[in-house]
Amino acid sequence: MFDIAIIGAGAIGTAIARVLSKYQLNTIILEKDNDVSGGTTKANSAIIHAGYDAPYDSNKGIFNVKGNAMFDEWCKDLDVPFKRIGSLVVAHNDEELETLKELKENGDRLGVPNLEIISGDKVKAMEPNLREDIIAALYAPSAGIIEPWELAIACAENAIENGVELRLNYDVKAIEQHEDHFRIFSDVEDVEAKLIINAAGVYADQLYKMVNENPEFSIHPRRGQYYLLDKEVGTFVNHVIFPTPTKLGKGTLVTPTVDGNILVGPDSEDLEECKKESVNTTYDRLAKVKELAIGITDKVPYGMNITTFAGLRAEPSTGDFIIEESSVVPGFINVAGIKSPGLSSAPAIAVYVGELVGTIMAGLVEKADYNPVRRPKLKFEHLSAEEKAALIKENPAYGRIICRCEMITEGEIVDAIHRSAGGRTVNGIKRRVRPGAGRCQGGFCGPRVMEILARELKCDMEDVLQENKGSYVLSGHTKA
Ligand SMILES: Cc1cc2nc3c(=O)[nH]c(=O)nc-3n(C[C@H](O)[C@H](O)[C@H](O)COP(=O)(O)OP(=O)(O)OC[C@H]3O[C@@H](n4cnc5c(N)ncnc54)[C@H](O)[C@@H]3O)c2cc1C
């Protein structure tokens, strides 16, 4: 029997696993997909928000500001790319300027550091590609950008290195409540655990329904679509640029990514409650993104677009993050409705959930050998010529460049497969070490990555998947 079963291996479930791995607990993560970070965590704006916009007394407000402050240490220990580049919320008229003042006041109250309203001239000097009619901006230097999927992968790896078990392809289908534990059912073997942490993203309401016929909340998917521009676009913007927010949310932003691309999006589209897998992009909504981004800049070079994608916000009926033990099902902790700024809040939510577990279990004992530092990844491109030569001599796989756009070697791909939460699919490898993330989007390196996956996983190339269950790339041999 496990002490804790965490359902869902997104940014939230894995961050909680990492925090709990510090203690003498027997913890398991159950994930329906074949990889960690396959849900909303892999498709979002990747901003670590400063935290000035959520209401002062909301969970979103509290956890965002606390979480933001934790990112330097977490990302250093976990070897996750993170840059504090700062954000600007731009205003075009007096009415929007009033909103900026309200945001600043709210942010100051929440403890967001160094917020400042700056003039249109200063905005122009900082960001020459923005619209001429911008009269002011709220500058938040603590905002940052990150690789969101890498945060979840790194948390999972670090948790596993500290004793947590990760079970992929484990789709929780039913949960039975017993006097002092839960029995969890899927298509494979059952799992028993004393406590359950429900971190199932857009599915968190369905998970809760398995133990409570009348859940106090529901979650519906709200889709957001994006353009990702080629690195050639360069420093089109240097900060995260938001429009003045409306009741619908933070609005469509333009931002650099931590890997050097430019991201434009998202829009906001409410989907029916059942459409929890609808991460396709659509022509009309991508056109809407362009229309919305015009409020910030009319110079986006969309001809340099390399891909589009969509993510689903887990929109809770309560409007705020739900982070509590169920009042009707003791031992069942909901961490639900974690929409934006969920990524920014993840470390703080995880620490809070750790404290909640400690209260429920009447105290936790720390492990003597807990290590918060994840084994770092070797980035061949960042090495000096001498270091590269020495590495290739030691392991010739580092001398074979597989992805020419991103300069990724076979050695890095092999390592990504064999790490504790290693990638098992073409996209899983792309998320970890970026072959296929560049301009050609895998056109050249895709087949080579498949060959390496098949060789390392000892399977046929036809069995290698692009992403989720059933996403086969090859149908068989030609002339067979
Ligand atoms: C368009 C968009 C933009 C965003 N931008 C930002 C941003 O810039 N900054 C920010 O802070 N936040 C942002 N967010 C929010 C952020 O992405 C989320 O808060 C965060 O990724 C949520 O993580 P999660 O772990 O709760 O959910 P997920 O990543 O969805 O993880 C849930 C996991 O549970 C698994 N699961 C579900 N059902 C089952 C089951 N039955 N059995 C087993 N496993 C199951 C899923 O497969 C999934 O892997 C954005 C979200 C969207 C959609």
Can you walk through the features of this model?
Helix 1 (11-20) links the parallel strand 1 and strand 2. The mean pLDDT is 95. Helix 1 runs parallel beside helix 5 (148-161) and helix 1 (11-20) crosses helix 8. The strands form five sheets. Strands 1, 2, 9, 10, 11, 12, 19 and 20 form an eight-stranded mixed sheet that branches. It is built from twelve helices and 22 strands. Among the domains are: 83-143 and 221-311, 2-Layer Sandwich (D-Amino Acid Oxidase, Chain A, domain 2), CATH 3.30.9.10; 380-463. It is globular. By secondary structure, it is an alpha+beta fold.
Please tally the helical runs, counting DSSP H or I stretches of 4 or more residues: 12
| Computed CA radius of gyration, to the nearest angstrom | 22 Å
Mean pLDDT: 95
Q: Determine the fraction of residues in helical runs and give it as a percent range.
A: 25-40%
CATH class of the domain at 83-143 and 221-311: Alpha Beta
What would a concise description of this structure say?
The chain has 480 residues and is α+β, with helices and mostly antiparallel strands.
Keywords:
alpha+beta; D-Amino Acid Oxidase, Chain A, domain 2; eight-stranded mixed β-sheet; five-stranded antiparallel β-sheet; 22 strands; 21% strand; binds flavin-adenine dinucleotide
Task: Detail the topology: elements first, then pairings.
Blueprint: E1 2-7, H1 11-20, E2 27-30, E3 47-48, H2 59-78, E4 82-83, E5 87-91, H3 94-110, E6 116-119, H4 120-126, E7 136-140, E8 144-146, H5 148-161, E9 165-167, E10 174-177, E11 182-185, E12 191-198, H6 204-209, E13 219-229, E14 240-243, E15 253-256, E16 262-265, E17 269-270, H7 283-293, E18 305-316, E19 322-325, E20 332-336, H8 342-360, H9 385-394, E21 401-403, E22 408-409, H10 410-418, H11 426-433, H12 446-457
Parallel strand pairs: 1-2, 1-12, 2-9, 5-14, 12-20
Antiparallel strand pairs: 3-8, 4-8, 5-7, 6-7, 10-11, 11-12, 13-16, 13-17, 13-18, 15-16, 19-20, 21-22
The structure holds flavin-adenine dinucleotide.
